[in-house]
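Query form — protein FMN-dependent oxidoreductase, nitrilotriacetate monooxygenase family

QUESTION: What is the three-dimensional structure of this chain?
INPUT:
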Amino acid sequence: MFKLGWFVNGYSPKTWTGPWAGNHASEWTGPNFWIDVARGLERGGFDMFFMEDSAMVEDTYGGTAETTLKYAEMAPKNDPMPLVPLLSTFTRHIGIVSTISTIQYHPYMAARLGATLDHLTEGRVGLNVVTSVSHRVAQNYGYERHFDHAERYQMAEEWMDAVNALWGSWEEGALVHDLEEPRFADHKKVHPVDFVGKYFRTRGPLNTVPGPQGRPVIAQAGGSAPGRDLAARNADVMLGLVKSPEDMVEFRADMDRRLREYGRDPEDLHIFFMAHAFIGEDDAAGKERYQRSVDHRTHPDEIEKRLWTMSYTSGGEIDYAKYDRHGPIPTELGNGETTTHKLMLAAAAEGKTLYDLVTGPMNYGMDFVGSAKTIAAQMDEVMKSTERPDGFLIQGIDDELSRRTLTEITDGLCAELQRQRLIRTGYSGRTFRENLSNWD
Ligand SMILES: Cc1cc2nc3c(=O)[nH]c(=O)nc-3n(C[C@H](O)[C@H](O)[C@H](O)COP(=O)(O)O)c2cc1C
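ANSWER: The structure tokens for FMN-dependent oxidoreductase, nitrilotriacetate monooxygenase family are given below.
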């Protein structure tokens, strides 16, 4: 058996053009679309609904926000935090993960918010801890430019230590609830943390009581060495970008080693590997869909969007609009999502042009193609070959998400996976963390 998560690139417009968009261009801001998504994913047996977040209107590409706003590329984007309790109210079991940035939230605010959300979701919140990618985000929060990659992770480690200290500031048994004496809490079991680091200071104790999970589920997505260490020390969930089952095994083995180094049980980390499902009524329809997506890459809009994405992934340091599309691929690596950027630039080593690169395969996870039955068999084969019950993190093709996409996945693919008992058919745990270690 394996797990499933759905990755959505933020609380932002999804499929807003084309025949299945409905009135999404305006509907996305309200609650109903997202409630339908969360409920659908739960019906399908997903373990989690995972929401990326970033806080900027990028203007690196071409030195203007025109492309960003023309295609709604990562902007506009609403704050996903308020969606968390809303979605948990309309579902009963699925984990709801929202992204939290270590440069946007002071540790006290993050710890307090995380604990509050844990209460409001009755133990189903997860926080995806990120260091943010681009200079524009850092500038929105008062910094002149973003911190260098290594420093960002040092900061994130310290941030996590401070947040953990605050979550630990209420000992077990601190809540007395003696109605006779009366005594609400025992002050001897609630402690200041007096955290003093290079980047953050916080006195504590937290003024919220621990939530049902003790601390929210922690997720981490950075695949560089410091990203992996951050996950190995702190995360329950990790996102992996790999292209093959062999890479999955290698990734898993590396994480197992790192967890052991930090004295943790490797079983406590659940890795979700990014995947795309090109699903059709039958195999031929799935293949056609895949081919349509490949052909679409040469559309001028797609080329511009891919170049835009590369500029963002570089951390807002490289303007890919400046380069000759038919010339060599600039090999400079930015300060942003280094793992993703390296995967993108891998084509440079093969002597390809920038045009070849942006019209070529995405290198952003694994692709599965065919009918629901075929994809279920392919997924099963991959997971069996790795001999680890990890999970797939499914993202819509080109971040496509409409109610049609949802139905294809939940009532098509998931129903098939459930019939074959490859994914859960129910949730026996009380909390998100408990369910991560359970299968039905
Ligand atoms: C699948 C995936 C999801 C991510 N989600 C976010 C996000 O929501 N917000 C954000 O600022 N960065 C996000 N990132 C960026 C990472 O958290 C990390 O900061 C970045 O990839 C740099 O890490 P690396 O150099 O260790 O790969 C994501 C990265 C990946 C691969």
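ADDITIONAL NOTE: The chain has a mean pLDDT of 96.
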